[in-house]
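Quick log. Single chain, no ligands specified.
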Amino acid sequence: MPQCSIVIRAYNEEEHIGRLLSGIMQQTVQNVEIILIDSGSTDATVSIASRYPIKLLSIRPEEFSFGRSLNLGCQAAAGEFIVIVSAHVYPVHRDWLAHLLQPFQNPQIGLVYGKQRGNATTQYAEHQIFARWFPEESNPNQEFPFCNNANAAIRRPLWQQLPYDESLTGLEDLDWAKRAMALGYNVAYQAEAEIIHVHNETAQQTYNRYRREAIALKQIYPQEHFYLGDFVRLLTANISNDYYHAWRDRVLARNLWAITRFRLLQLWGTYRGFVQHGPVTSQLKQTFYYPRQRQSTADLTAESRINRPLVNYHLFEQRSHDSIE
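-> predicted structure:
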């Protein structure tokens, strides 16, 4: 039986999936199985992934939700632990997986999530979000139910008790953490388990992401509200904070408009999600789950300030170049 099963959700990820799988194959933890759930990719995602030792599962686009896709992958998993990663992330260090699994030595830990950082094409405002949500210091016993399934791990027996909510339009990870904590399990944040999260979104995709997550948050926490006054207050506070940090970093001039636009899209999407009434239609699901392709990125840079073995992506880059030629 594998020590862990790695579940990856993918849709049109030909640019990123090979890099992630290459990084997984170089991990110090080798007793793993890899499960890819493809939700109707029309590009080379499946053919690229098939070059690696994966178990391929498919879900029809009209049946997709984040929770349903995860439940399908978890049901097929054989490992004691289930590692969940996005198809557009990649590990920085060869001991990423070892660090992500380490907190499970404590039987009270039900869920672990790791650090995320952006790459050179990441929006400045999103770099600030990553730094705030995923700090440099680990927390072995988090007091609030936050996590992120771009880089997380759970106990399979606990998932069998608590399958993911398939009705949510996002934040299925937060909802699962909330229910696991209600059963007495702890959530651990592991800063040493670092991945690079490539979020190369269009303006519409950013807006849609925060809108669907707000719809989900309203379902998870019905008592929560987000009024127009909250939009104005948080927009002012976040833009001011980003401007300050960009000024300190001496990059304000070139990021001024990008910061403003990102925060407008983020918080207006959040507001629109909270005021959404009625069911989520199939047309809206299509907008949320199957947007236009992300813009291209070729940056593979990931720096480390500590002396740990880095994943070597040069061979992957060379193979990708050769296949294009």
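The beta strands are 4-10, 32-38, 54-58, 81-86, 89-91, 109-117, 139-142, 151-155, 186-197.
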